[in-house]
């Protein structure tokens, strides 16, 4: 059972994120300061930094959830290979229309904000690297076959496929393509990438 303290912390984190998101949408990421976010959320700057070490992390506030999803997929993979477990996860997220993927018209502003901000683009690259490290550790902990690829290589290849499918879909969305085409492109890239990895790149 979640304690009252944990519930309040989650509510505070969400309030900061919600307030900041509205401000970013109205004025642009670069124009908003931590002090303004803190004042609007009714907390101190220290409190904001306790939840989000960097302003960019407020924008990418779903990263902890993403890390958890990836970790759970590996922990519960059973007899499946890590690559198959990750493929299944990404397929399930697409079928669920999970917000993490951002494959909806309402996320166009999100993607444009990222493209317009050097700071956000740089942080996104760092977060992908962090995710790869986290995933490699989870794969290593779950056990890897002696004759198979290393946990680090498996994680790097899987993340590369996911990133390619992800960025391709975002590009189609920004180009104004129909959502059906965005979805189809995402699925095709995901299937092709994981097919190559699971049978060995020739």
From TrEMBL:
Lineage: superkingdom: Bacteria
Keyword terms: DNA-binding, Transcription, Transcription regulation
Feature: DNA-binding region: 33-52
Domain HTH tetR-type: 10-70
InterPro entries noted in UniProt: Homeodomain-like_sf, HTH-type_TetR-like_transc_reg, HTH_TetR
Keyword Transcription: yes
A molecular function (GO) term: DNA-binding transcription factor activity
A Pfam family hit: TetR_N
Protein name, as recorded: HTH tetR-type domain-containing protein
Species, as recorded: Nocardioides luteus
Organism placement in taxonomy: Bacteria, Bacillati, Actinomycetota, Actinomycetes, Propionibacteriales
């Amino acid at each position: 059972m979640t304690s009252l303290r944990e519930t309040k912390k989650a509510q505070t984190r969400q309030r900061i994120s919600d307030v900041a998101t509205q401000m970013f949408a109205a004025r642009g990421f670069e124009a908003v300061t931590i002090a303004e976010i803190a004042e609007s959320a009714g907390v101190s700057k220290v409190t904001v930094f306790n939840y989000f070490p960097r302003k960019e992390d407020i924008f990418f506030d779903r990263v902890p959830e993403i890390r958890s999803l990836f970790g759970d997929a590996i922990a519960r993979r059973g007899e499946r290979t890590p690559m198959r477990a990750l493929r299944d996860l990404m397929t399930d997220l697409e079928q669920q229309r999970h917000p993490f993927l951002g494959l909806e018209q309402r996320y166009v502003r999100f993607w444009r904000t990222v493209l317009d901000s050097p700071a956000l683009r740089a942080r996104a690259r760092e977060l992908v690297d962090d995710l790869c490290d986290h995933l490699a550790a989870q794969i290593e902990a779950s056990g890897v076959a002696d004759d198979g690829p290393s946990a680090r290589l498996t994680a790097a290849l899987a993340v590369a496929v996911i990133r390619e499918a992800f960025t391709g879909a975002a590009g189609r969305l920004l180009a104004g393509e129909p959502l059906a085409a965005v979805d189809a492109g995402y699925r095709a890239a995901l299937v092709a990438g994981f097919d190559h990895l699971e049978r060995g790149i020739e």
